[in-house]
Amino acid sequence: MFAVGVNSSVKDFIEAIKRPDAIAAGYIGQFIAKPFFGFLFGTLAVTTFNLPTAVGAGIMLVSCVSGAQLSNYATFLTDPHMAPLSIVMTSLSTASAVFFTPTLSYLLIGKKLPVDVVGMMSSIVQIVVAPIAAGLLLNRFLPRLCSAIQPFLPPLSVFVTALCVGSPLAINIKAVLSPYGLSIVFLLFAFHTTSFVAGYHLAGTWFRKSADVKALQRTISFETGMQSSLLALALANRFFPDPLVGVPPAVSVCLLLPKAPPVAFISALSMNCFDYSLSNVT
């Protein structure tokens, strides 16, 4: 989250103001469509796949968090000119998670497992808002220092991610490798894929008359399909007594990290093929 602040600026937010329609579409994908799919697949996990209730709650929790910074990198690979918008959408959805994540968690999971809404909001402020604010201030007043540390942030983020993911996976390795471990992977893969597709078609319908509709479709698709699973993991470890709640967020991180580059590559490849065929026609 600190890296989001360091890589953002006031100018990025000014750019976002010029595309309020895109931000609104991103919010619908993030906090309406995605939680719906999370509730759907979380319910299927319990009713159809006979998984523990805590696993279903973990899938729902993944759907309640904000977008991941990974979507910014994917957008940069496919549509570099859309990267500032993607960063702003992720930053705003992350800041909004102070309200949306505990509210959605209460609505979707509250009746299944105890959820400390007030404590969760306080935790999100500490995990999300404070680091982003610190990064923005550092970027604003100490730009040289930001430029010096920026090359080290990606590998540091990967290292921290490995530590965060490794612990819950090690604790719950029997659950992940159990017969229902494959079911968790399948359900989360289906959840993320459905979210990608929903975001893509949502933007296609919303911006069908826009000149940059394809770029917006890819950007909002990444924003909808890639969640801050580490935030869900941190919340699961802190606020849910059953450690199984943390398994879906941990598996989600492992799925998204290798899945994002191929999705971005395929999107970029299809875009280049379309442009090539169009040039041949003309």
List keywords for this structure.
mainly alpha; 282 residues; Na+/H+ antiporter like fold; Na+/solute_symporter_sf; Bilac:Na_transpt; 14 helices; membrane; transmembrane helix; transit peptide
Structure notes:
- This protein has 282 residues and is an all-alpha fold.
- The chain is 82% helix and 0% strand.
- It has one domain: Up-down Bundle (Na+/H+ antiporter like fold).
- α3 packs antiparallel against α4, α4 packs antiparallel against α6 and α11 runs antiparallel to α12.
- 45% of the residues are buried.
- The C terminus is likely disordered.
Write the layout of secondary structure elements.
Blueprint lengths: L1 H5 L3 H8 L2 H28 L5 H12 L5 H9 L4 H27 L7 H25 L1 H7 L3 H19 L1 H5 L3 H26 L6 H13 L3 H11 L7 H35 L1
- Named CATH topology: Na+/H+ antiporter like fold
Unreliable residue stretches: 272-282
Give the N-terminus to C-terminus distance in angstroms: 45 Å
Which bin fits the share of residues in helices?
Answer: over 70%
Structural class, by secondary structure, is mainly alpha
Summarize the structure.
The chain has 282 residues and is mostly helical. The chain has helices at 2-6, 10-17, 20-47, 53-64, 70-78, 83-109, 117-141, 143-149, 153-171, 173-177, 181-206, 213-225, 229-239, 247-281. The model is unreliable at 272-282 (pLDDT under 50).
